[in-house]
Amino acid sequence: MMNATANNQSQQLILALSKGRIFEETQPLLEAAGITVTEDPETSRKLILPTNHDNIKVIIVRATDVPTYVQYGAADFGVAGKDVLQEHGGAGLYQPVDLHIAKCHLSVAAPKGFDYANAVRKGARLRVATKYAQAAREHFAAKGVHVDIIKLYGSIELAPLVGLSEAIVDLVSTGNTLRANDLVEVEHIADISSRLVVNQAALKLKRDILQPILDAFGRASVE
Ligand code: ATP
Ligand code: PRP
Q1: What separation in Å is there between the alpha carbon of 161 and the centre of ligand 2?
Q2: Mean pLDDT, consecutive 10-residue segments, the chain of 223 residues?
Q3: Which of 11, 25, 206, 210 has its CA 20 to 30 A from that of 188?
Q4: Which ligand is nearest to the CA of 99?
């Protein structure tokens, strides 16, 4: 009896997703694995959402928190942007699949009138506002550019407009946000897409139930 209960629990699966684009863009991949989330996170106040499988639940967390839930095993697997994973560091996570969703890139941008290349050439110490402090530090260190990183949590594009920084490091997709704020990309740092992340212990202990889902995600995520 004890064993049956323990076994049942070990076969429960929890998937961590964030609301918005990650949740939406993950839906076709879940469908390919035969999983339907039966409540809408945009209208439900629930943070644990049911699916058409009694033993599979979806938890809704902040995009930046997905790796933490998976690292500690509070979620068995999740979907997170490469940007978020780089900031987290990836400890305790197995990253088997690039899902090719939520595609964008990480760039350095500055106001149109600011001669970024000249400032760098002259060795000026630049203030750079970003949500991605780790990626920004690595980028500028590799180029030997001296910067003061100013950590922000949103509306990054505002910083140079009000004198908080000379430049920013942020995500760009269509470029509309930069254009709307008279900013231009001055350096491309990295292409970004979202990855499936899996708790390393769950992969071993729940492989029977997890592996077919990972395989379905892998087959459905075309470039
Ligand atoms: P948090 O709620 O923790 O602040 P967030 O607001 O960045 O996170 P989303 O905007 O849903 O959360 O972004 C989730 C992921 O989607 C990002 O980590 C990134 O990988 C990707 N992403 C962000 N902006 C874009 C965009 N404009 N186009 C495509 N993908 C994007
Ligand atoms: C992201 C990112 C940029 C914007 C870039 O913001 O932080 O501001 O998208 O996309 P674009 O090049 O297509 O304009 P998001 O839309 O996620 O808003 P948020 O940061 O407020 O969540």
Answers
A1: 17
A2: 46 96 98 97 96 98 98 98 95 92 98 96 95 97 96 98 98 98 98 97 95 95 82
A3: 25
A4: 1
Distance 138 CA to ligand 2 centre (A): 22
Count of beta carbons in the 10 Å neighbourhood of residue 11: 14
User: From ligand 2's centre to the CA of 64, what distance in Å?
Assistant: 14
Is domain 104-191 annotated with CATH 3.40.50.2300? Answer: no
CATH class label, 2-102+193-222: alpha beta
Pocket test for ligand 1, best of 104, 151, 179 (most atoms within 8 A of CB): 104
Sign of the C-alpha dihedral computed for residues 130, 133, 136 and 141 taken in this order:
positive
Give residue-wise pLDDT tens across range 98-135. Answer: 999 999 999 999 999 999 999 999 998 999 999 999 99
Which ligand gives the minimal distance to the CA of 107? 2
Upper half-sphere CA count for residue 167 (Cβ side, 13 Å): 27
| 58 contacts 69 by C-beta, under 8 angstroms | no
95: tokens are 């990253």
What does pTM read for this prediction? 0.93
Q: How far is Cα 204 from Cα 185, in angstroms, rounded to an integer?
A: 43
Cα-to-centroid distance, 48 and ligand 2 (Å)? 26
